[in-house]
Amino acid sequence: MLDPLVIKLLSLAFALLLAAAAWHKLTEPVRFRGILAAYWLLPEALVAPAAWLFAVLEIGLAIAWALGWNPAATAAATAALLGVYTLAIGVNLLRGRIYIDCGCGFGASGGSGQQLSSRLLLRNALLIAAALAAALPPAPRQLLLADYVGLASACVVLALLYLGANQLLLNAQAINSWRKPPAGSNPT
What we know:
- By secondary structure, the chain is mainly α.
- The chain has one domain (4-172).
- The protein has helices at 4-27, 29-38, 44-67, 71-94, 118-133, 145-179.
C-alpha cells in the first residue's frame, strides 16, 4: 500500500509530464517527425502516423492521470510507452548513434536538442518505476487540507528537480562535446 498523497503526487506529475511532452509534439510536428525519423526504427511511411500516435497517446495518458481514471491501466500504459522510448534510445546507443536528438522536449533550455546517452536510460527506468508504483493500492486514509498544500509544493519541487536533472544532462552533453577534438583535427 502506498500513501494516497504519494499516489496523487505521482498522478499529477505524470499528467504534467505527458501533457508537456504531447504539447511539444503537437506544436512542432515537423521537427518531431524529423527526430523520430532520425532513430531509423520505422519505415519512412510510418513516421508521420507514429508521431501523431505518440502525441495522442501522451494526451490520453495525461488526461487519465489527471482524472484518476483506472490507475493500474494508466500506470501500465505509461510504463509501456516509456518502455518503447527507452528501447528506441537503447537500440540507437548500441548502434553508436549518440548524436541524435532524443526528442525529450526539443532542447527546451534554448540550446540544441538533448542527445542520446545512457543517463536517459536511467532516467526513463526511474520514470517507469514511478509509474508502476502509482498503481499500488492506496493506504486507507483521507487527505487533509495540509496534504493538498504539501501536494502543491511537492509538485513544484518535482517539476524543478526534473527540469534540473534534464539541464544537468544537457550540461554533461555540452562538456563532453568540448572535450572531444573535432573530427580530423590533430590534438597536438
